Amino acid sequence: MRLARLEEARSPELEALERERGFVSDILRVLTYRPELFGAPFSQLLQEVMRGPSSWSVGERELFAAFVSSQNQCRF
Fold first, then answer.
1. pLDDT category, 45, cuts 50, 70, 90?
2. Which listed site, 10, 24, 26, 45, has its alpha carbon 20 to 30 Å from 3?
3. pLDDT tens digit string along 51-69?
4. What pLDDT shows up at residue 31?
């Protein structure tokens, strides 16, 4: 389900990314829409998962994330 409010959300950062990349992913829209509600806590958790202590290297975690995104047909 896509929220119209997120589709219409505009900020200088999102517009710059859209010009540079040609698109802005849904996750970036969600992260920047209300950062205090979701963006900051999710970003902090993501950093802990991807860069924190683990038996997997950072490269392996990045590769796993890229593979899952590919399987889900994500562009990021």
1. very high
2. 45
3. 999 999 999 999 999 999 9
4. 84
* Cβ atoms of 33 and 39 closer than 8 Å: yes
* Best CA proximity match to 68, nearest among 27, 34, 40: 27
Report the SS3 class of residue 24: coil
**pTM recorded for the entire structure:** 0.63
Tokens standing for 37? Answer: 């509600």
Dist CA 49 CA 3 (whole Å): 27
| Structure token pair of residue 33 | 């829409």
DSSP assigned state of 13: H
Cα(35)–Cα(18) distance, integer angstroms: 19
Kindly state the tokens that stand for 42. 């999710």
Residue with structure tokens 């896509």?
A: 2
**Cβ 6 vs Cβ 56: under 8 Å:** no
